Amino acid sequence: MPNIIIVYHSGYGHTKKVAEAVLGGATDAGASVRLMPVSELVDDAWAQLDAADAIVFGAPTYMGGPSADFKKFADASSKPWFAQKWKDKIAAGFTNSAHMNGDKFLTISYFVTLAMQHGMIWVGTGMMPSNTKAATRNDLNFVGGFTGLLTQSPADASPEEAPPPGDLETAKVFGARIAEVTARWIRARADVENGGHQPASESP
Ligand SMILES: Cc1cc2nc3c(=O)[nH]c(=O)nc-3n(C[C@H](O)[C@H](O)[C@H](O)COP(=O)(O)O)c2cc1C
In terms of domain of life, where is this protein from (predicted)? Predict the structure, then answer.
């Protein structure tokens, strides 16, 4: 069973809702998933992260990038980085912000860079956007993220009101994808370690 940790920051609760939805989708898809808020890192948090098969990064977009609290966590991850302890783990990410665009992609780009510095394997949404004339706000992937999950919460909406149900459903589908890709990845790795897999070109 894939062991997935969602490490996230949420200043006002909206991004937390997204983290919970990603957890729901990944759990339903058969993974063991934990939420790890950066504001409440437990003593063995780093050991838990080192032992995970996949780490999902989540933060609100503040001033065109990940929130400072998330960045503090990312800077602290230089310790496992030294020993490349997260190398070859699956990575994915999501951000929530007030504008439909709001420079969210800079946050996702930062997550990709963080994952690459750690030698991780990045997984995007794998989802088509809802972008036709007939599309409505609660359709899957209406905000249109490919590299990472994008959700939107109007500036005056409480976490009870936003992100809207369609974005939370998109987060669930994304969580399921992360669980499935991670399961496939750890199965393939086990096959290789057990000598059960041969590249096609070397087959008789
Ligand atoms: C300091 C600060 C900076 C923000 N900068 C942006 C921004 O660059 N783009 C944007 O779309 N929204 C921005 N927002 C709005 C937040 O992204 C939005 O309120 C989000 O839902 C907050 O998520 P949270 O409740 O998880 O903290 C900003 C909010 C704060 C407090």
Answer: Bacteria
Q: What is the pLDDT of residues 117-167, one digit of tens each?
A: 999 999 999 999 999 999 999 999 999 999 999 999 999 999 999 999 999
Distances (CA, A) of 175 to 6, 56, 153, 190, 203: 10, 9, 19, 23, 35
Q: Give the containing element (helix H, strand E) for 100.
A: none
Identify whether the C-beta of residue 33 lies closer than 8 Å to the C-beta of residue 58.
Answer: no
The residue whose CA has the least distance to atom 9 of ligand 1 is: 102
- CB of 12 sitting under 6 A from ligand 1: yes
**C-alpha 97: how far from its chain's center?**
15
CATH number at residue 171: 3.40.50.360
The number of domains in the chain is 1
Closest ligand 1 atom to 11 CA: 27
Note down the domain range covering 67: 3-202
